[in-house]
Amino acid sequence: MTMLSVEAEPYAFGFDISKTALVLIDMQRDFVEPGGFGETLGNDVGMLRKVIPPLQEVLAAARAAGMLVVHTREGHEPDLSDCPPAKLNRGAPSLRIGDPGPKGRILVRGEYGHDLIDELKPLPTETVIDKPGKGSFYATGLQELLESRGITSLVVTGVTTEVCVHTTVREANDRGYECLILSDCVGSYFEEFQTVGLSMFSAQGGIFGWVAASKQFLEVLP
Ligand code: TIU
Predict the structure, then answer these.
(1) Which superkingdom heads the taxonomic lineage of this protein's source (predicted)?
(2) How many other C-beta atoms can be found within 10 angstroms of the C-beta atom of residue 110?
């Protein structure tokens, strides 16, 4: 066991690589490429694309260090049986979940737009968690996977900061996982949500977790 320490807010984050997983949340075409679900909700997807280059570096370093890597995708069964009507009807998107869009049916498993972007393609050995909700633990096998691998800490990345990243970190925190959120590897469609969303993690002495820039994390990896 080798304990490493990353300079972070509100104080240094200590972790053991063999007990830490890198989690990439919802880096899907539907959220980060034009023509997907994110854009139909009225968002500028360009805001999320800046996460890609630093996250590529972190992913490569985590793989090289032998960390467990977990990818998640938000989406639904083709018959939408796992999509509550409340989620289906929420807001007034130009395209609803399940509707045919330019990248296939919006947020439906198996469709091109639902899949992860080519820049962060999972290796065949890496787990991809399909989740119907915003959180990565709700109605998934994530907790069982982490328990089976003896994981106690998560390095969390992906989109969007205030939605699926926040929900996942809050769920993880309640389950006893220590979370380090990499500030330049999480993205929001809204600049103010990015700023406030990041400060919410580490406020009150680290109420949900720790926040550091990817550079600080990369510096301590072997
Ligand atoms: N709309 C938005 O900001 N996010 C989502 O719907 N899902 C995720 O955050 N992945």
Answers:
(1) Bacteria
(2) 11
